[in-house]
Design brief:
This protein has 16 helices and 10 strands. It is of the alpha/beta class and 353 residues long. Pfam families: Dus.
Amino acid sequence: MAITVGRISIENPLMLSPLAGITIPAVRRLFWRLGVGLAHTEMVSCAGLIRDNGKTERMLHRAPDEGPLVLQLFAGDVKTLVGGAEVALSLGNHFQAIGINMACPMPKVLKKGAGARLLDRMDVAVDMVRELKSLGLPVWPKIRKIVPDGDGPDTLRFASALIDAGADNVGIHGRTAPQRYEGRSDPEEVLKVARRFPGMISASGDMTDFESISHMMDGGCVSVFMARGAISDPFVIPRIRSKMGYNIGNCPFPQEPTLEERAGLFASLAEDLLSLHGERVALVMLKRFMSGLFRGVPGCGPYKRSIASVSDWPQAMDLVLDWRRYFERGIWNERYGTEHGDARGGDPQAEAR
């Protein structure tokens, strides 16, 4: 039931977005377990790669058992972009495609002429795609909605120019750069381009539920980028997979995972974070994902507060492994896969309310 997106064969159209400081290998492994069809690296600086910056080079690391992975790069000029991409590939890292970030609205990226600043420099953006194609991998630029300034290009014209230059897939975020991440994304702007280039456009922005994703897929988009919505509720991935008919085969999680399954996934994330990134990063990221992995579980407040308050990794890991103690009074109910009652003889469901 595989599909082809931008010359890459993937299991399903749900893709993990490139998220700065978030889509590190351990986090990508979490989302592979949950069933995404493809993932992106963090946004990697080509200038850092050219300068042999060790921290930047470590961002290229692939964890064991990762699926299709797109390397997301940013640069303010063609020479730096291609040079950085050549360095990345020369280090022996294997990626299925190279993404060009033309969407990031943050000032530290814009001031380098990169990210969404390229939306004002279509000639440079086009040259970037054309030159990057010479490396032999599919090229995936990611842009935003563009409101024309005078006779400048709109979203459709800009995307069309990138495709003419050889782009294999264009991701379009339905917010403008000045909006950053505020307000509502404009799905119709994305669909206008998708109808013109069926099978070549991926939707980004407010892709948080089955209805919003179905709307984009039915309108001609080939895939969708999952971002902040998936971080706040990771189990949205298996829920949507199931509703789309892709919950077949290797996706281990049902739409409503048991408490044991949630705790097991949390422990796996903790182990990956420690082994791949060290204690400091592991502690920060574990706290970041705790709420999402236990979202909606009755009675988990004390557990989440305990982890949020720890200041060192051994304490955090003890809590990860000792999760049952925080639910020993039978706070959870049959929906979460247990038959334990309240030790005092009370009604677990009543206490959960």
